Structure formats: C-alpha cells, structure tokens
Amino acid sequence: MLGDRMYPYFDEYLDSVAASRRIEKDDIRAIRTVLDEEVAADRHTIEKLIDLDRSAQGGTEWRDFLAGTIADFVIWVEGPLGKVSSETSAWLVAALAGGSGSSAPSASHIVHTVIAEAEETDASLTLYALSMPQESFWPVEASGSQGTTNLIM
Q1: What percent of the chain is modeled with pLDDT above 70?
Q2: pTM to 2 decimals?
Q3: What region does 144 belong to: left with phi over 0, alpha with psi -120 to 50, or beta?
Q4: Position with higher pLDDT, 93 vs 137
Q5: CA torsion, points 136, 140, 145, 150, in degrees to nearest 10?
Q6: DSSP annotation string for 70-136
Q7: In 10, 31, 63, 101, which residue has its Cα 20 to 30 A from 17's Cα atom?
Q8: Quick one: pLDDT at residue 8?
Q9: Which among 57, 3, 50 is positioned nearest to 30, based on CA atoms?
C-alpha cells in the first residue's frame, strides 16, 4: 500500500495492523506518509493510533513515532501554540487511560515527550505523568541478543 492513496482506507489499514498484533517498520512508514501527505492528524486519528498501541506491539521506533506525533498534535495543533490546555490535557489523559482503565503501553513515553516539548502544560498532565513509570509495557528484542526480550527503558 505504500505509495498509494491510503487515506480513504486508513482506519481499515490500522485495524489490519491491530489484527496482526505487530507494528512493522513498513507500517510506521505508511502511517507517517498518510499523516504527512494525505491528512492532518485530528483527535479521531490520534485515538486510533493510541488504540493501535494497545493492540499491537511495535518496539522503540513505534513508541518514538507515536510520542512525537501526539506531542506535535497536542502542542502545535490543538492550541494555543506551544501550550497544552487543561481541556486538551483531560482529553489526552482519558485517551491514554482508556475506557478499561489500563493505560496504553506507550502512555508514559507519550506524556513525558509532551511535557518535555511543550512550553507549558496543564498540571493534570504532570500529575498523570507522575502516576506512572517512565517506560513502555511492551517487550522488545534487545540488540545483539536472540530470543530474549527486555522492557524499553
């Protein structure tokens, strides 16, 4: 699907990646292409990416891509520029926490990235960040080792 116009089928594509339970580098590249060239991110898209984080393992490249994408959206699109409002913070915390109360695996990395990159954030986002460890819950293969997994730190 790389190189094709994917936006009309973007939700279906994300669903197929979730069903495979694995986010590959080509998937990250395809998602990045859609967001860069075909459609601007909105809350629906961000929520779909967070749902994908819950249902499929992606490793360090996915975690960094997801955190950067969400940080860019909440800091530079949701406005005011450079700041994360209380309303945006409440939405982001709710999206990351999920309906079941179990945070998305990359939630800590996302929140810490947003706080580090924003000029100002609402206190609720900081409190949420302090309530969780600063690591992902998905195991990834350590470089140089075969068959072993370590938590991303």
Answers
A1: 81
A2: 0.81
A3: left
A4: 93
A5: 30
A6: HHHIIIIISSSTTEE-HHHHHHHHHHHH-TTSPPPTTHHHHHHHHHHH-SEE-HHHHHHHHTS-SS-
A7: 101
A8: 73
A9: 3
